[in-house]
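Subgroup meeting minutes
Present: P.N., E.W., G.H.
Scribe: E.W.

1. P.N. recapped why we're keeping a running log of single-chain structure predictions: easier to compare across weeks, and new members can see raw inputs and outputs side by side.
2. G.H. added today's entry (395 aa).
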Amino acid sequence: MKIVAKTFYGLEEVLSNELKALGAKSIKVGNRVVEFDGDKEMMYKANLWLRTAISVLIPVKNFTFKDERDFKKQLSHINFGEYMHLNKTFAVKGAVNSKLFTYSKYPMLLLKDAIVDFFNDRYGQRPSVDAKSPKILFDLHIAENRCTISMNSSGAPLFQRGYRKGTGDAPLNEAMAAGLIMLAGWDQKSNLIDPVCGSGTIPIEAALMVNGIPANIARKQYSFMFWPDFDRQLWENILNAAPNTPKRDLGFSIIGSDTDGDVILKARNNIKALPLGKTVSFEIKDFKDVDPPKGGGMLICNPPYGVRLDDDGVWDLYKELGDFFKKKMQGYTCWVISPNMEAFKRLELKPSSKIHIFNGPLSCDFRKYEVFEGSMVEHKYGEDTNQRRKTRQRK
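Output recorded in log:
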């Protein structure tokens, strides 16, 4: 069957690579989506394993329509009993971009009514709508006169992993955190540091990756569990086959730190919900006081964007962060995500790479800073730098 995985803008290729590793076929990358072919087993695995997906959809009906009346007629021909039982709550969500409707949410109301009417006509009873936590979730997508109705097999977004019990202000989304780690190209063999970790999302997602543990190992519920054709034995086989124990000795460190003791406590509580043992070390510490482990590695951070700080506070923060990189992070590759282009300048470092990405509704840059030991010239030319310099002087 055709399957569609939704993601954030900028993470499409990363998600595509995840699907290749999972064994998906006929992968096609789109805007915020990746389409692929698979069976029920693949759909279950996608929900369990995908780190950068928001949801996994199964398209069940595609049609074109002439106008609103024709749209309602097409809906009346659908056998919704194939997709849900009468006693299950449901909801309709989606996106509409069509001049045929003056109110973009109206088609969703029509689909909801069509589902209710189907069961009422057939059984004399109406299924209940639950907009907050439905058991069955329909996804409606309309582009002009083309309609696709899909079953959302995930239900609640997949970034709701089930392990995060507490957060600080403006926490980084779990799927976004995993995506940043993958975009940065962390080799899973060297130190990884987040010196402004908040409730610990980046270090925790990194620990799940390096231990080979599925992203949603702590999650208890998916919408596909309430479908008429749910195969409980197949799902239990997939879940039982998934690794769920940490490695004893990584040989490197994953460290999260923050000045706020309350959020570090939340980070420590969050990781307790996962089979990660002592893979991550969380510290109450100002980033200026962090002493990175020897051997180099990678730093990935999501500093405050400036929404809650005045301009001077933001400028000072980023200036201090840049000084920290230059003074203490030699031999590390440092990555920073932010929508604040002016704040980036305060780092006073030239990025070697920029990736445009959306963190929710915010248009951001994810920038790479390589902090070399010694000067840039010495890094580029190696130990014979002085000899090259003397040669040029003689010439």
